[in-house]
Recover the amino acids of this structure.
């Protein structure tokens, strides 16, 4: 795989990832990689996972991790300067670690996952920038209710969102240890995504400035 400069957008459910990704794709003239919608569209373990995370959490995350790794490995012919990734492998790590933190998977299962993750991702993150969308859980609940997706309303309560946030916080610490560039966009800045075209342009310019810092 050739060396690519990737921007991975991470954040909790409802934080605006799917809104920001096309904005960055447009203003940075980049290639968009849909690595988040696998769960909604092709995941064979999705329904089982939603009903019983303790039983299916590890299997579900292993499948998503493998599929997302395949997507990245297929980017060798991309000629754009930037590749924008929606969630992808980094969020797979965050979700799986969150299951471990709340004891839905065992320590041995986590160790197995992390060893496989490190093997699959060897060299992938050498030229990566991460944009984190950082929302409070209360605000996420409001956003999820507003967009009204039935399965989210049924399964994604405050407890679950807090669990995912624990995984994201652990991921952020891991990224900092590895000295991967991290751009943190707080709630007030992310709200600009829902403004007019000028507001979205300013958001893209803000990210671009931080990329060049």
């Amino acid at each position: 795989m050739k060396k690519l400069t990737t921007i991975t957008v991470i954040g909790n459910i409802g934080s605006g990832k799917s809104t920001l990704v096309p904005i960055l794709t447009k203003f940075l003239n980049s290639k968009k990689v849909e690595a988040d919608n696998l769960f909604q569209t092709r995941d064979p373990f999705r329904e089982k996972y939603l009903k019983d995370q303790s039983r299916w959490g590890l299997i579900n995350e292993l499948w998503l991790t493998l599929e997302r790794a395949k997507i990245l490995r297929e980017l060798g012919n991309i000629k754009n300067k930037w590749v924008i990734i929606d969630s992808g492998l980094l969020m797979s790590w965050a979700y799986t670690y969150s299951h471990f933190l709340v004891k839905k998977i065992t320590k041995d299962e986590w160790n197995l996952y992390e060893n496989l993750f490190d093997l699959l991702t060897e060299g992938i993150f050498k030229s990566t920038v991460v944009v984190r969308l950082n929302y409070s859980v209360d605000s996420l609940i409001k956003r999820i209710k507003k967009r009204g997706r039935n399965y989210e309303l049924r399964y994604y309560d405050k407890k679950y969102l807090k669990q995912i946030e624990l995984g994201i916080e652990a991921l952020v610490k891991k990224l900092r240890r590895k000295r991967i560039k991290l751009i943190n966009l707080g709630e007030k800045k992310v709200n600009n995504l829902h403004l007019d075209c000028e507001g979205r342009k300013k958001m893209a310019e803000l990210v671009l400035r931080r990329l060049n810092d």
About this structure: The longest helix spans residues 53-73.
